[in-house]
Each structure stands twice: as structure tokens, then as C-alpha cells.
Design a protein that fits this description.
Chain lengths: 227, 746
């Protein structure tokens, strides 16, 4: 499987995602420059964490205008896997690929720590390999990670089984403890926690591998179905 | 015709003697721009004029040192990658004390920005930051509210800059004293990694090579920042807010990536960041180091506002700017990279061979100064020094505790010893996925992905010890820093120091500085940790009140990349050993301890006694125990003594200790003395621990076993401390936040 990691000016978890996918998961990974429109035939595009364009207007608000995002939108519309992590999640909500928004943490401070997550559904390419009820230790590192949406949207997300991850103990005030959500086609997922930071024992947890492994598994079965 | 009056000279903080020296260098009177240039280059901050003759006493070499003091950062060799390429780290600590008092958020943020530029200007990618912070007490009736605002701003500023830039802030230390209320300390350490064949130096080589300016536009911010940092604070200095620069970590991130990419083109001959003293410092230092001259025209310098004078442009300390020299004919390769990253890069001048720093403004000469005298002939003072300032007695009060367990809770709730989670959770300490051990341990560990090794780093400083005895205090600091590294299994290899002191023009303050440097020199030579660079911050006084002499040491060590051994007890029923033994203590040596500070609320006497030979043996033994995985945890005994070391080892997993010792020391001393050369370890293999300790000739005292949920310490069967861990941990974990929240309710 080939991962394409988008590099916006100000991305700073791009290398971490690249390293997790290539060195730790053993798959191909390449960087995609924000002003190029080519996705270099990636099977999954990762929008990494960081502070794209400095996050000066609103987190992710400028990134949505970059040439690469036009390609990402097209790719997503065709059913391609798009995973937004942290700032990448913010970008996905800004550009309308995912509903809701990420606002300042309750408590107003940046928080970096390991948290516990559960997969809220097994019915997604990002969670299918995660045992039901398993608590994943995965770090968060964000100042604006509080997920909000109006009640109707939240109800719809739950009704459609589109909540991907929930916090066991809500660290930032996210409504209904939501840590990650899926789009309607379930091929686009955004999450605030950093699975790429938990892909080897040396980093204190390997639980993030399950997110990547779900994806790799889904991709493989998609391939074999196509054959 | 001269417009320079003695008043103008004085306003630039130059003495009449220094002015005469300027006139003799130029062979004429300087104009106002030249005077400004001299004043910043010859400020204490840039020239180290009061400390330089003493800094020469510090050891600076070893077989691993690739680059010592004098460059932007020190460099040491850390080993090869599988292909045989040599890898190095560049690291340094720097202060941003004065700006952080005036404007805590931006002061601290730009402190981080400045030291990061020092690292990547050499070609190294920054991979870790640590901070040594000193504040006034948070609950002081007079200054508490301001102290809380300062810590809140400083921590947010560090977080803002480091998090956005994408460098993990992996550790540090925070101490509170009344003497820091009017003069907080913000010392930032940064460390970067690169290949040895890709080191860049700040040299303007090659006559005719173009000089390129890149990064933020130049504005009027920070003018005379360097000279401000060299003066004591007065009521007026609160008015100096425009002197503090504003940081833009996003711009810095772009600069980092663009500079590293541009360096790969091979078209860059030399590069230096514009930090203190801005364009002035970078131009004259680069040409001085290369023995060349440099000519720039300010008309080409990107400016943020109209009508800036040459004086303002040359002295501006606008952040996120770099000056580089490209190989002639290849400048477009460099400019293209900056264009790709959306950065403003302009050719502003040329390297000359005449040794002159010549500044033009639209073709007209506005300053013409020989580079080398400007950069290197700053006056050097052998300032008079007498006996170090000391206003406390040798003997302290008799120590008769009514409740030794309650004393332990007092320590747990104290600002110095309580959990600093509130601080470090605001820092992204994991970005770049190299953090093997982050904040909260004895030392932080960063793995270097390219090679099989990791780098461990620790910061230490103890103002009370140094106040009581500057020489011994400095040695203790070096010993503790090395001990912290040994506890994680790393071998200390090199150091950087930040010397925060008061007004050097006062002989008793100068004496503190001199003795501390000499003590540090002895200890660094002994522990084989040469000092490869650092920073001196003097005039840390407000309204005549000086700070405790506060040197801070950053020491780095090298180790194999593997799962870390932490400070915490992991399993119940393990044997606990005290490597190095109970140590010796008396009432006089208790005067600088946390027990004296938090429980007795006093200071007296002397710091703990240090035997460096013994200390080294203890460290060797512990290092072997850790690297061989004979021990499951290791934590050195320092602030708060043995009782506190045991408590800290108990918190993470709520696995405590049941300890019984056999000592004739008074209980207060036994529990809380801070004698060095001691490490608490837990092990499932006591025999091997004993054998290893014996090999290095140090005692390994079996003092008890780990026990879930409880901390009990007794002496000869008599219980001294006994507490459930949950309550002790709660006190420790919540103290800082509850003190800070007082602000909200106040």
C-alpha cells in the first residue's frame, strides 16, 4: 500500500506519519508538496499534524485553498482513503470533507498527553482491525481539538455510525466525547489523536498501529474484491 | 564634525574609556549609526566583557568535541550511521530573562526562537528543547499575582513557539524564589542533529560572494534589546516594552526547512542567524570569523515600515531573519529554494577582502568599521571581586520536627517539588517521534533515528547551593547533572552553561561569578564534560535586589537506543538499594536543602559536601546497572533528600516502598539531607547490584522493598514516615495548578 503524506508549509508531523507508515508499518510512503496537484498515485492520503500556513486565520482555514487539496477532494469523492490527523482533521472540517469543527480546548491550554480511545465503530476502513471495546493508548497534542457540531449533525453522525473514535476520558471538551469522525462514504476519517506517534514500543505505545493495520487490511480486501 | 556628545555615549551604555577605544579603532569620531553598532556589539550580552577572562578557565575540548565555544552552538560527534557517515549534535543554552519579565509570552517565545536559529544555522535540525525557569513565589501576598501572570505567559510562550515550530520540549526544571520575582529566568536549551560533513559555519568567505538576507522584514522592534539585557531593571524598564520582539514560529519553521534545503544545494558558503544585535552582529561576526570584509546596502533590506534610519535597521532585533553568503554565480540556486518556501530573500551585499564592515544606504556610506576589532576587541574587564555576597549565618535553627510525615506532605505541595505536569503538558514533547523519555524523569532521552544511539540530556541548577558557596554549588550542579544522565544509562560527554548572575560591577557579585566558573571548570574537567558553548546573563537585579547566583548547566550524554529505565518503581516486592549509601550530613549542611526552604523557611550554612571521586564511582556503578538492565528503576537523591526520592519513585505506578535503615543521623537529616552521590534503584537481582557496586568500590545499601500503595520509612525499626501513596500523590499532583488557579478566584 502506498501512503502519500501532504506537506503544507507549517506541517510538522509530516515526517512522523511518513516514518510510521514506512519504517514502522513497512509500507511505501511519499511526501506530497502542497502546491503540486499530483497525489503520486497514493492509495491513502494523510493530512498530517502541524500548523499549516501558521494556522493564523483559523486552524486549517488556508490549507483548504492549496492546489493539493483540490486533488485530495477529487480523490475522496472517488472513494480514496483520506486520513486527517490533528491539523489534518481541522483541514478536513474546514474544507467540508467532514462535518463539524475543532475549537479551542476546554481549559484553553494546549494539551500534550497520552489518552485512552475506543473505536466507536468497527464498520470503517480505519477501525475494522480494532477489537470491540479495546482501549487504545494514543497521544493527543493540540490547542484546538474540541470537536463541536450542532445537535442535528451529532445525531446524524451517531445514527449513521460515523463516529470513528471516542475519548474514554474527555480531555478537551469535545461534544459526545468524539475524537474522530467519518464521512458519509466512510473513506475519509479525521481524528485529533496521533496514531502515528504510537506505532512502536519505544514511543510508549504501539496501539496506533491498529488504525494503520485496519487501513492496510481494508485496502487489501478492496484489492482482492476488485480482482 | 561630530554630533556625539558624552550624554549620547552614556545613553548607549558605553563608558568614556570605551568611547576613546572606538575613536582609536576608527581613527576618527564615530557617527551615530557607528556608535549604535559599537554599543550593541560591546554590550555585556554580546561581548561577555565582564566574564570573558574567567570563561577561559572552562575546559572546552575532548576527542568528541567538533566545535567549541565561539560559534553559534557547540558540536560533538555521536557516532556513525550504518553507511559510515559521522553524526553530530549541536546544542546550546541561552537566556531570555529580561524580555520575559517585560513581556512574558513574547519574551519566552522569542527565547525559544533565538536558540533554535542558533542550532539550524549550523545545518542541524533541532530535535529537542528544554527549559530552566525561575519565578517568584506564586502565593506571595505582594508579588504573587504578577508571578502567576509571568509563569502563565512564559509557559504559553514556550509552548506557542516550540509546538508550532515542531520541536519537542522534553524537559527542564522550574524553581521558585522571592529573588526571581522581579527578575525571572528563562533559559532555553536546544539540541539538533546533523551529519558531520554537513556542518555550516557563520563565515563570510570568498571575496565577491553575494550576501543574502532571508526571512522576516526588518522592523523597529527590539532595538537595543542586547543593551537592555545588559542593564539592571528599574521602574523605567517596564516602559521598554517595544524593545521586546514578537516571534513568528511559522516563519521560523519555513526558515528551518528552507535553510536546510538550501544547504543541500552546496551553494551556501556561510550562514548566520540574526539574533541579538541583528544585522550588525551577523555581518561583523561573519566577516570577522572569515578574516574578510563585508559591504551591504540597506536599501535592499526588506523593511516592514517606511522611513527607518540606518541606525534602526542595523540595530533592529526583528525575529526570524538569517544572513547567508552564497557562492558567486550560484545565488539563484539558493534564491529558488527560498522562493519555493515563500520566503523573502534578497541580495543585500558582497563579501570584500578589506576587513571592513561597510554599510551603505542607497549607495551612501553610513558606517565603515573594521570588522575584527568590532567583533573581537570589545573591552575585556577584570572586574574586582572580593568575597562572594552572603548574608546568612552558618548555623541554623535546631531541627526538631513534630511530624516527619507532615513534613513530607509540605515538600510534596511545595512549588519546587510538586508535579510540573501543568507546565509540560502544554508542550508538545513527542513531535518527531524520537522522545524515548520525556518530561518528569531524571533526564530526557531522544533517539537519533539515523543511528542506533540516543542522546540523553539534563538541565540542573541550584541557586541556594550556589549562594551559600558558589564554588561548591557549581560543582554540585555539574555532579547532579551527570548523575541524572547516569541514572538513565547515558555517559555524559559535553556541557553547555548559562550563567545568570547579578551586577558584575559589584565586587561581591563578581566574586560569585568567578568562583562559580572556577568550580564549574574543576567539575567539568573532572567529569570529562567540556563546555562547548553557553551564555552569560548578568545584571539580573531589580531595584538593587540581586537574584541568587543561578548558573544552569545542560549536559548531554550518549547511549544505545533501547527501552528506557525510568525513575518509577514498577513492581511490588522488588529490593530497593541505595547506591552510595546514606551519606553524611550535619545541621550546617542542611541550610540549603528543600527541607530548610519549605519546612523551616530559612537558609543558612553550606551546601552538601561533594567528593567528586566518589561521585564518579557511584555514577559508573549506576550506569552499568542501568545499561545491563540489572535494575528496573533508578532515581538520584537530590532536592528533598532520600525521603523525597523514594516518594517520587513511587508516584507513577503507585508502587511505594517499605524501607528501614540503620543510621545514627537525626531523623530530619536522615530523611531530608541532600548529600550527593546517591541513587535509589529497584531490582529483582540484588546480588548483581551488590557485585557491580563492589566492582566500583561504592556501597550498595539494601534499604527495603517496594510495596504497592504505601510509603513507609523507618530507622532501626522506628517509623519516621508512613503514608498511603494516594494522598501524597494527590498533594504533589495538584499543588501547582491549585496555586495558579488562585488567580482566577482572586
Amino acid at each position: 500500500m502506498k501512503f502519500g503524506v501532504v506537506v503544507f508549509p507549517g506541517s510538522n508531523c509530516d515526517h512522523d506519519a511518513w516514518y510510521a507508515a514506512s519504517a514502522n508499518l513497512g509500507h511505501q510512503a511519499e511526501f506530497l508538496w502542497h502546491s503540486d496537484s499530483s497525489l503520486k498515485s497514493s492509495d491513502c492520503v494523510i493530512l498530517p499534524g502541524g500548523f499549516s500556513y501558521g494556522d493564523y486565520l483559523r486552524c486549517g482555514a488556508i490549507a483548504k485553498f492549496s492546489p493539493v487539496m483540490a486533488s485530495v477532494k477529487k480523490f475522496a469523492a472517488e472513494g480514496g482513503y483520506v486520513m486527517g490527523i490533528c491539523n489534518g482533521f481541522q483541514i478536513l472540517t474546514e474544507c467540508g470533507l467532514l462535518p463539524g469543527a475543532l475549537v479551542r480546548n476546554r481549559g484553553l491550554k494546549f494539551i500534550c498527553k497520552e489518552v485512552l480511545l475506543t473505536a466507536a465503530t468497527a464498520n470503517s476502513p480505519y477501525t475494522c482491525a480494532i477489537p470491540t471495546g479495546a482501549e487504545l493508548r494514543i497521544p493527543i497534542a493540540h490547542g484546538e481539538g474540541c470537536y463541536v457540531a450542532d445537535d442535528a449533525t451529532l445525531d446524524m453522525l451517531e445514527a449513521d455510525d460515523r463516529v470513528a473514535f471516542r475519548y474514554v476520558e474527555n480531555p478537551n471538551g469535545s461534544l459526545r466525547d468524539i475524537a474522530g469522525v467519518l464521512n458519509e462514504g466512510r473513506n475519509v476519517m479525521g481524528m485529533m489523536p496521533h496514531p502515528e506517534r504510537a506505532t512502536e514500543p519505544l514511543m510508549g505505545s504501539s496501539d496506533g498501529r491498529m488504525v494503520f493495520e485496519s487501513l492496510i487490511q481494508s485496502y487489501a480486501s478492496q484489492l482482492s474484491a476488485a480482482k | 564634525m561630530s554630533q556625539i556628545t558624552p550624554e549620547i555615549v552614556q545613553a548607549h551604555q558605553l563608558t568614556p574609556g570605551e568611547y576613546e577605544h572606538i575613536v582609536s579603532i576608527l581613527g576618527r569620531e564615530p557617527n551615530i549609526t557607528e556608535l549604535g553598532i559599537f554599543s550593541v556589539m560591546w554590550s555585556e550580552h554580546c561581548s561577555y566583557k565582564s566574564s570573558r577572562i574567567h570563561l577561559k578557565k572552562l575546559p572546552t575540548r575532548s576527542k568528541l568535541v567538533v566545535c567549541g565555544p565561539g560559534e553559534n552552538a557547540g558540536i560533538i560527534d555521536i557516532g556513525k550511521d550504518p553507511e559510515g557517515n559521522d553524526y553530530c549534535i549541536a546544542f546550546k543554552i541561552e537566556s531570555h530573562n529580561h524580555p520575559s519579565f517585560i513581556e512574558p509570552f513574547q519574551g519566552a517565545a522569542t527565547g525559544v526562537g533565538g536558540i533554535l536559529r542558533d542550532i539550524f544555522t549550523m545545518g542541524a535540525r533541532p530535535v529537542a528543547v528544554m527549559d530552566a525557569l525561575r519565578f517568584g513565589p506564586l502565593d506571595d501576598p505582594q508579588t504573587g499575582a504578577r508571578n502567576r501572570r509571568i509563569i502563565d505567559g512564559v509557559v504559553a510562550g514556550i509552548a506557542h513557539y516550540g509546538n508550532c515550530f515542531g520541536v519537542p520540549t522534553v524537559g527542564g526544571e522550574t524553581v521558585f524564589e522571592p529573588s526571581y520575582a522581579g527578575n525571572p529566568l528563562v533559559n532555553v536549551f536546544a539540541l539538533g542533529v546533523f551529519r558531520k560533513d554537513q556542518i555550516f559555519y557563520g563565515k563570510a568567505t570568498g571575496e565577491g560572494n553575494p550576501v543574502i538576507y532571508v526571512g522576516s522584514k526588518t522592523g523597529k522592534d527590539g532595538i537595543h534589546g542586547a543593551s537592555m539585557a545588559s542593564a539592571e531593571f528599574t521602574e523605567e524598564s517596564k516602559q521598554k516594552r517595544p524593545n521586546v520582539q514578537v516571534g513568528d514560529p511559522f516563519m521560523e519553521k519555513l526558515l528551518l526547512e528552507a535553510c536546510l534545503e538550501a544547504m543541500q544545494t552546496g551553494a551556501i558558503a556561510g550562514i548566520q542567524d540574526m539574533g541579538a544585535a541583528g544585522l550588525t552582529c551577523s555581518t561583523c561576526e561573519m566577516s570577522s570569523r572569515a578574516g574578510t570584509g563585508i559591504e551591504i546596502d540597506l536599501a535592499h533590506v526588506p523593511q516592514r515600515e517606511q522611513g527607518m534610519t540606518p541606525y534602526e535597521i542595523m540595530l533592529s532585533e526583528s525575529q526570524e531573519r538569517m544572513l547567508l553568503v552564497a557562492h558567486k554565480g550560484r545565488e539563484n540556486e539558493v534564491l529558488d529554494v527560498f522562493k519555493k518556501w515563500g520566503l523573502d530573500a534578497r541580495i543585500v551585499g558582497t563579501v570584500k577582502s578589506d576587513g571592513i564592515m561597510r554599510v551603505l544606504n542607497h549607495g551612501e556610506i553610513v558606517a565603515e568599521i573594521p570588522s575584527r576589532p568590532l567583533a573581537d576587541e570589545a573591552p575585556i574587564y577584570d572586574r574586582p571581586h572580593t568575597k562572594p555576597l552572603r548574608k546568612v549565618p552558618m548555623e541554623g535553627p535546631a531541627l526538631r520536627s513534630e511530624n516527619l510525615t507532615a513534613d513530607l506532605f509540605t515538600l510534596a505541595r511545595s512549588e519546587d517539588l510538586c508535579s510540573k505536569r501543568w507546565i509540560w503538558e502544554q508542550y508538545d514533547y513527542m513531535v518527531r517521534t524520537n522522545t524515548v523519555a520525556g518530561p518528569g524523569g531524571d533526564a530526557a532521552i531522544i533517539r537519533i533515528k539515523e543511528i542506533g544511539s540516543s542522546v540523553a540530556m539534563a538541565l540542573d541548577g541550584n541557586g541556594r547551593y550556589t549562594y551559600l558557596d558558589p564554588r561548591e554549588g557549581a560543582k554540585l550542579m555539574v555532579a547532579e547533572c551527570c548523575r541524572n544522565l547516569s541514572c538513565v544509562g547515558a555517559e555524559p560527554v559535553a556541557a553547555t552553561n548559562n550563567l545568570n548572575f547579578g551586577n558584575p560591577e559589584r565586587p561581591e557579585i563578581m566574586a560569585q561569578l568567578v568562583e562559580a566558573i572556577e568550580g564549574m571548570a574543576d567539575a567539568c574537567a573532572f567529569f570529562e564534560t567540556p563546555i562547548t558553548g553557553g551564555n552569560v546573563s548578568l545584571y539580573n537585579e531589580t531595584l538593587g535586589e540581586g537574584i541568587f547566583p543561578s548558573p544552569v548547566m545542560g549536559i548531554v550524554g550518549v547511549m544505545k537506543t533501547e527501552m528506557p529505565v525510568g525513575i518509577a518503581f514498577n513492581e511490588a516486592g522488588r529490593d530497593i538499594y541505595l547506591i552510595g549509601g546514606i551519606g553524611e550530613a550535619d545541621g550546617v549542611r542542611m541550610g540549603g536543602t528543600q527541607y530548610a526552604k519549605q519546612v523551616i523557611k530559612d537558609i543558612w550554612g553550606l551546601p552538601p559536601a561533594l567528593d567528586m571521586v566518589f561521585e564518579k564511582q557511584v555514577q559508573l556503578a549506576v550506569r552499568e546497572m542501568v545499561t545491563s538492565r540489572t535494575v528496573e528503576s533508578a532515581h538520584d537523591v537530590s532536592d528533598g533528600g532520600l525521603a523525597w526520592a523514594l516518594a517520587e519513585a513511587s508516584f507513577d505506578n503507585l508502587i511505594g516502598a517499605s524501607v528501614d535503615v540503620d543510621s545514627d543521623l537525626a531523623p530530619e537529616l536522615l530523611l531530608y539531607h541532600e548529600g550527593p552521590s546517591r541513587v535509589v534503584v529497584s531490582t529483582a537481582d540484588g546480588k548483581t547490584v551488590e557485585t557491580m557496586a563492589a566492582k566500583y568500590g561504592v556501597p550498595a545499601l539494601k534499604i527495603g522493598v517496594t510495596e504497592a500503595g504505601r510509603l513507609k520509612i523507618s530507622n532501626k525499626g522506628i517509623t519516621l514516615v508512613d503514608t498511603p501513596l494516594a494522598t501524597l500523590r494527590e498533594s504533589w499532583a495538584t499543588a501547582l495548578e491549585s496555586k495558579l488557579e488562585a488567580e482566577v478566584h482572586a
